[in-house]
Amino acid sequence: MNDVQFLVHSGIGRITLNRPRALNSLNHDMVLAMLERLEAWRSDPAVRAVLIDGAGDRGLCAGGDIRAIYDDARTGGTASLRFWADEYRLNALISRYPKPYLALMDGLVMGGGVGVSAHGSHRIVTERSRIGMPETGIGFVPDVGGTYLLSRAPGELGTHIALTAGSVTGPDAVHCGLADHFVPSEKVPDLLDALASRTPDTALDLFAEPAPPSGLAADAEWIDHCYAADTVEEILTRLHASGDAAATAAKEIEARSPTALKVTLRALRSAAALPDLESVLAQEFRISARALSSAEFVEGIRAQIIDKDRSPKWSPATLPEVDDKLVDAYFAGLEDAEWVAR
């Protein structure tokens, strides 16, 4: 059975991620197949729009194949660098695709799943959607253009999402600019049927509804105040002084990798000033390459995914121990590995 399936019907080129037992996590072969097929569909008159969804009923995609990355990192390999290079090229291609690209972001959409969906032209969520960039919880930093998207969310909502490594609802995703349309899950089959005879815009006009209120939007006042600080330490100080919800966020952040937190905050601030997705992806590749060789990443995956003891031993263990020199290293140029968006 193919890990990713392709079908053209009634002018719709459909991509279905097909690893339901692994929550449709992406591997390198899937990324390469998607790149090849999207390039072919660019000039195919039989394809007027593209739709991506996930097999099973749990979600679109839970991210990259983290176990493969773990094995690669432990042995000092470079396979993950090749995977990321092609994955980021796929993200960039999706963002500038010349035909409508519809992403059905139903259920879980995490990490790499965001990369193959949230850069599309028509991003659809439901009441079942749970979307997130959980990287700081495994000693990593939001990638696949995540820092581009989150740095452009209203106020400091993206900073909150990135540092807590939490997930957001469909309405939150619409409010934050991670999605465009809210369609109740019971109407999704009708939407898919309508796409056979209508343009994506007219089909969505029939079935999309105003998104319910965003919980994140309701919390924007304390989020914007706390996360506007220049350092993670000051963010935590403000959170602890800003009420129960903010204090809960602080406790979530304090469980994350101190190194990943500081690198993430700088990456977000830098991404906000970069001109386009490609330049942000280039920055993310430098960070990812550095993370691959770090003990933090291996330890984070071990604690959360492999042994599942949920007790990572971060090193450095505290925020004050993470100095500017260490953070700087994540942004340094690469001599032996290169990623160029073309």
Automatic annotation (TrEMBL):
Record domain Enoyl-CoA hydratase/isomerase: where: 12-331
Sorted alphabetically, the Gene Ontology cellular component annotations on this record are:
cytosol
Q: Name one Pfam family in it.
A: ECH_2
Give yes or no: UniProt keyword Lyase. Answer: yes
Q: Reaction catalysed by this chain?
A: 3-hydroxy-2-methylpropanoyl-CoA + H2O = 3-hydroxy-2-methylpropanoate + CoA + H(+)
Which keywords describe this protein according to UniProt?
Hydrolase, Lyase
**ATP-binding as UniProt keyword:** no
A GO molecular function held by the record: 3-hydroxyisobutyryl-CoA hydrolase activity
Q: What EC number(s) are associated with this protein in UniProt? A: 3.1.2.4
Its BP terms in the Gene Ontology are: L-valine catabolic process
Tell me the protein's name: 3-hydroxyisobutyryl-CoA hydrolase
Its lineage reads:
Bacteria, Bacillati, Actinomycetota, Actinomycetes, Pseudonocardiales
